[in-house]
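USER: Note each token:
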Amino acid sequence: MGARVRLPPIKHKIKISNVITDKSGNVLVMPALIGRPCFGRIETFLRQAKPAEDKKIVRGNREVATRTKCMGCGVRLACKALVAERIKSSPTITDAVLAWHRDSIKHHGKRVYTGPTGRLWTKVLFAVVGNGRFDSSNDDVVREAMDTAYDRLKEKWRLDKRRQRKSDINAGLMDHFTLECVVEERDNRFRTLLDFCKSPAAPPDMQRWNAATCSLVADAWLAITSLKAERRKSGSTAAARWLIANDRSNGREERALITRVGQDMKKLHRVETLRVWGSFDPLGARYDAELNRMVGELQRDDSTPFELA
């Protein structure tokens, strides 16, 4: 069984006189109607708007009619009038509907959609499809509403992804993309530090720092930042082992690297004290750009517009 379709409630009923047509089933003017893709659909109305005696259930000692989707709809009368006009506008549809309806009543006493009579119902469907679509002034209204609703869905998806990513980062989960962001930031900080050391604003001893020294300081920042993000210890030993595990040891053995990282951490503290670098946000511009790319690849499905409206 398919999922039940829950249509949104209609705020304002539409009268038959509110729907102006060209007498051939095409709607020229009507009030805006969102959330009723079935409005004026021949096959849907014939299937759903069953007479009360067609659909009964036993409740206690008596039979009672159940409400169909169409029976409780606020635009039912206007829809019924439009469906009737559209059936009459095409002799092919008219003949197919009459043949199916007469056979249903004659052999079953009610509308039937399966079995031998169901073949006549299939001819109704083919006649409707073969006739082509009817035009309606409401189409543009629905299309605009769907565009707006789809934009809301995309924004909700984007916010959900950001919240989930922030939650993962707070929990110490480092995925591949987060690590890429940290590595990219490490490269940016290396260039910023190197430019600073070459400038007159740098202290005299820092002006003697070359590219290799700046690179080691940036590596120390990378290791410590990654370890803290994963909720792990971030001392010189842990940082050195992280650099070795991630192929950033520059050929040094663990003991020598621990000593070197300890020295680099002191330099790093000085750089941060001088505020050479700004803060780092793993949910920054690069992640926003990635989200924009992912949103652009989302596939839009217009087959159920009432779910978007």
